[in-house]
């Protein structure tokens, strides 16, 4: 039976962030994820999790200067020390929150190189940083995940395809380095989701969903999510599925798609 985690960055925006934990629990979620926790003390977030019986399943390592346009540091030459400091911060939060999966963002293609030379340089940096992150996180029993992101939403992002992400994980060779399979991003870039899920499931560490193309609830658009949820279950995925979508209107009012799964779980 699929298990779902509310993404508190995108969902429940009608509430202040710290109040979103209780709102998600009232709607039947037992787990949450979000992009970044760093505006709040880890203990404060942990208290919200505990008060509402929630499990923290995923967040992102610091991405650099997000407001200034940075979208991760892992592939950026010259930013290795910043990446390592950010990883240390993320692991400190993970210890307090009980979080066991950490998304490390690759970053954008650098503008001072050209073509394949640029990609090769960044790929080398990426591999070294991911190897370091996986080794460091292993002691904490934490899985590092990398996510291909579509270039419509995030132009210039370094990692876009599932096969490339799987190849990078295989090259690094760490058991706790896996791919984050976001159905929304994959459909926009590649399509053929069912085949890719069957092909790659052993290397998938986390799954996220949203409707395509508008990124609203997973009950409208190009993807047949009931079929995909059944397939994901049949393939033996035992993690949470992150609901990383922007509700069309109120979050709670748009959860009709989720009710059958919550009822079945009860």
Structure description:
There is one protein chain. The protein is of the alpha/beta class and 266 residues long. It has a single domain (3-265), classed as TIM Barrel (Alpha-Beta Barrel), CATH 3.20.20.150. It is 38% helix and 14% strand. The chain has helices at residues 20-26, 42-51, 80-97, 115-138, 162-172, 183-189, 193-200, 225-234, 259-265, and strands at 3-7, 31-33, 55-60, 101-103, 143-146, 177-182, 204-209, 240-243. Helix 3 (80-97) packs parallel to helix 4 and helix 4 (115-138) packs across helix 5.
CATH level-3 fold name: TIM Barrel
- Alpha-beta content class: alpha/beta
Q: Biggest sheet, open or closed, and with what strands and sense?
A: 8 strands, parallel, barrel
Classify the beta-strand content into a percent band. Answer: 5-15%
* Mean pLDDT score: 96
Count of runs of 4 or more consecutive helical residues: 9
Compute the number of strand runs: 8
- How are the strands ordered across the major sheet? 1-2-3-4-5-6-7-8
- Termini, distance in Å? 11 Å
Q: Any idea what the shape is?
A: globular
Order of helices and strands: EHEHEHEHEHEHHEHEH
Specify the CATH homologous superfamily: Divalent-metal-dependent TIM barrel enzymes
Low-confidence stretches: none
Helix content: 25-40%
Q: What would you say the CATH architecture is? A: Alpha-Beta Barrel
Number of domains: 1
Summarize the helices and strands and which ones pair or pack.
Blueprint lengths: L2 E5 L12 H7 L4 E3 L8 H10 L3 E6 L19 H18 L3 E3 L11 H24 L4 E4 L15 H11 L4 E6 H7 L3 H8 L3 E6 L15 H10 L5 E4 L15 H7 L1
Parallel strand pairs: 1-2, 1-8, 2-3, 3-4, 4-5, 5-6, 6-7, 7-8
Helix pairs in contact: 2-3, 3-4, 4-5
